[in-house]
Amino acid sequence: MLQIQPPNKPPYSPHPILNLGFRIFFSGGAIFAILIIALWMFIFLGHTQINAAKINPFYWHAHEMLYGYAMAIIAGFLLTAVKTWTGMMMPYGYRLGAIFGCWLLARIAWAALGLGLTAFPVWLAVAIIFDLLFMGLTAWVIIKAVMAVKQYKQMGIISKLVLLTIGNGLCYWGIFTADQDYLRIGVYLGLYLVMGIVLTIGRRVVPFFIERGLSFDSNQEVSVKNSKALDVLSLGSFLIFMIADVFYPNPYLVSTSAFIVTLVNSLRLIGWYHPRLWQKPLLWSLFVAFLGVCISFFLFALQPWLAFNHSIAVHALALSGVGMMTVAMMARVSLGHTGRSIHSPPKTLNFMFALMALAFVFRVIMPLIATDAYLMWIMLAQSAWIGCFILFCFSYLAILAKPRGDGLFG
C-alpha cells in the first residue's frame, strides 16, 4: 500500500524576533551598547558604588564590551551564518530565547556589580552561571552543526569560541580570587580572540560584499585581489602579537609583530580597494573599519618607542575592529536576512557610521594630540558611540522585529 509522507512541519516561533539568532542578539546587543556605555560614564566619573577592590572598574568596562556586547553580536552572526554554511537548522523560538535569556541575565548581574548593589556574591554567582551557560550553549550548537556535516574548515571559528569561554572563565576566577592578573589576562585574551574572529570572518565576507555590491549596478563584474600568502602571514603575525602582548609582554616583540600585522593587512586592504565603494555606506564602512584595524596595530607597533598609553592602541582596536566592524556587519546582515534589499539601505547609515568614526577620533587621535582635554575627549567619544547605536535602533529594530516580506521563515 502506498504511504504518503506528510510534509515536514514548518518551523514556529512565538515572535519573528526569535526566528533566527541575528534578530534577537543584534537587537539586544544594540540596546545594550547604549545602556552599558551610559552606565560606564557614571562609573568612570565615580558616581556608583562599584567594589573596586574586587573588580577593577576598567576591567568591568572591558569585560562587558567584549563578553557582553561583542559576544552578543558574534553569537547572533554565527547562529545565523552557520545555518547557511552547514544547512543545519540553528536554534529558534523558545530555544533561541533561552540562550538569549542566559546572556541577558548575565548582563543584568554585571550591571548590578557595576552599580555596587548589595549581595555582591549573589550577583557574581548569577553572572558566572548564566554567562558561561550562554557561551557554552552557543559554542555547543555551533560545534554540533559543524561536526554533523564534517565542515572541519570551520574549526578555527570553533576553537576561538572555546577559547573565549575559557577567557571569560579566567575573568571570573580573577574576581573570585581577587587576583587582578587573571582578570587582565581574561580581558585581553577576549579582545584578541574577538579580533581573531573579526579578521577571519572579515577576510571571508568583506571582499565578497565589495565584489557583489559593486557588480550589482555595473555592466561588468568587479573583482578584488586576495592572497593566500597574506592570509598565512596575517594569521601567524597576529598569533605572535597576541601571545606576546598577553602572556609575554616583551615590548620589542609586540612592536615587531604588530608592525607585520599592520603591513600585511594594509596590503590586503589595498587589494580590496575600489574607488566606487565610497558611494555605498555598507561597503565604505567595512573598508574604514579594516583601515582602523591597520591604524590600531600601527599604534601598537609605535607604543613602546613613543611611550604613549597602551590603552590608546587597545581602544583603537576595539572601536575599529569591534565597534565599526560589528555595526557595519549588523547593518548589512539585518537587511539581507530579512529579505530586504541591501542596495537600498536606510538613509541614516552615513550618519551612523560617521558617529562611530568620530568616536574613534575622539578616543584615539585627540588624546594623542591634546592630552590636557583627556576627560572631554572621553565624554565626546562615549556620546558619539551612544549616538551611533541610537540611530541603529531607530533604523533597524523595526526591521529585526517584523516577519520577512517574502513569507519565508528567517
UniProtKB/TrEMBL annotation:
Protein name in UniProt: NnrS protein
Transmembrane segments: 20-45, 65-82, 94-116, 122-143, 155-176, 182-202, 229-247, 253-270, 282-306, 312-331, 351-370, 376-399
Species name: Psychrobacter piechaudii
Pfam families reported for this sequence: NnrS
UniProt keyword terms in alphabetical order: Membrane, Transmembrane, Transmembrane helix
Top-level taxon in the UniProt lineage: Bacteria
